[in-house]
Write a structure and sequence with these properties.
Blueprint (H helix, E strand, L loop, with lengths): L29 H14 L2 H13 L3 H6 L2 H4 E2 L2 E2 L2 E5 L6 E5 L2 H12 L33
Antiparallel strand pairs: 1-2, 3-4
Length: 144
């Protein structure tokens, strides 16, 4: 088929990533982390602050952080000092320490019941379902 008969295909607008730097980005510096924490505290976004602190502590991928269960971080009504989760990409166990500040933000967040989603107990309870309908106690998943 001759090329002269084909319609000319042109982009109507420039590519969204034209001129942008591609590839791996630089890690956050401590001053950036603290700036994000302060802004979340000022805005009163306790759930976002708790998840941000947990993400910084654990260095988990976003998909692994979203799959985290309440039972992975709570035991006997308290936030654990160390937690373990199987990473979805590598299937390797990931162990991390939960700092005091993160534990405080998780307790405060579950106390004021600002987590979204329905509160149910059972093995499928995720980080979205952090408080039970009875009150301020964290919902349980698994056999805890």
């Amino acid at each position: 088929m001759p090329a002269a008969n084909l319609p000319a295909i042109r982009a109507c607008r420039p590519a969204w990533n034209k001129g942008r730097i591609i590839g791996q980005k630089r890690p956050l510096m401590p001053k950036h982390v603290w700036a994000i924490r302060v802004r979340l505290e000022i805005a009163g976004r306790t759930r976002d602050l708790a998840l941000f602190n947990l993400a910084i502590d654990s260095m988990l991928r976003g998909c692994d952080l979203a799959r985290l269960k309440v039972a992975d971080i709570y035991a006997a009504g308290l936030v654990k000092e160390r937690a373990s989760i199987t990473q979805s990409k590598t299937r390797q166990p990931g162990r991390f320490e939960i700092t005091e500040e993160t534990r405080k933000s998780l307790v405060y967040c579950s106390t004021i019941r600002s987590w979204s989603g329905p509160s149910t107990s059972g093995p499928g309870v995720s980080m979205k379902d952090a408080t039970s309908r009875r009150g301020n106690t964290p919902a349980w998943s698994g056999n805890g």
